[in-house]
């Protein structure tokens, strides 16, 4: 067990599952719900507190059965936890699913389906340009805020 609260790769993976894989009403699952389901799968001790500790990086030593139970609950392959290469690919798919939950992103994606490759490139370039402009604005705001706090 580790006493640090620094996120680990494992805690980040578990947190990403909680943030992305949700109930049908779009609310996050509670630690107790997930822990209960994992107890039922493993037949072993698995508390909400233990799950919270794993999620926040306060503990990083789950058993293989615990990780398999988490994978089963969140409906991801166990490789998400055990194989770095596959885990990275699965994480990308989870992030995409999370983005598609946003109505605006979903609408944009659905409207882009019928675009030509050139049209998709244009839309991609526009999105990149807007993202750079917004990042620049945010950096300017943060810089201005920092200068005001120093005064």
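Q: What amino acid sequence fits the structure above?
A:
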């Amino acid at each position: 067990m580790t006493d640090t609260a620094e996120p680990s790769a494992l805690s980040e993976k578990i947190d990403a599952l909680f943030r992305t894989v949700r109930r049908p009403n779009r609310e996050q699952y509670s630690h107790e719900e997930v822990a209960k389901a994992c107890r039922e799968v493993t037949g072993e001790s698995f508390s909400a507190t233990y799950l919270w500790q794993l999620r926040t990086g306060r503990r990083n030593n789950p058993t293989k059965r615990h990780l398999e139970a988490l994978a089963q609950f969140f409906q991801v392959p166990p490789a998400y936890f055990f194989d770095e290469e596959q885990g990275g690919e699965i994480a990308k798919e989870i992030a995409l699913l999370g983005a598609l939950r946003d109505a605006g992103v979903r609408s944009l994606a659905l409207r882009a389906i019928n675009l030509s490759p050139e049209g998709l490139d244009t839309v991609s370039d526009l999105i990149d340009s807007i993202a750079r402009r917004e990042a620049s604005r945010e950096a300017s705001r943060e810089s201005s805020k920092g200068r005001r706090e120093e005064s």
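Q: And what stands out in the fold?
A: Residues 1-5 have pLDDT under 50 and may be disordered.
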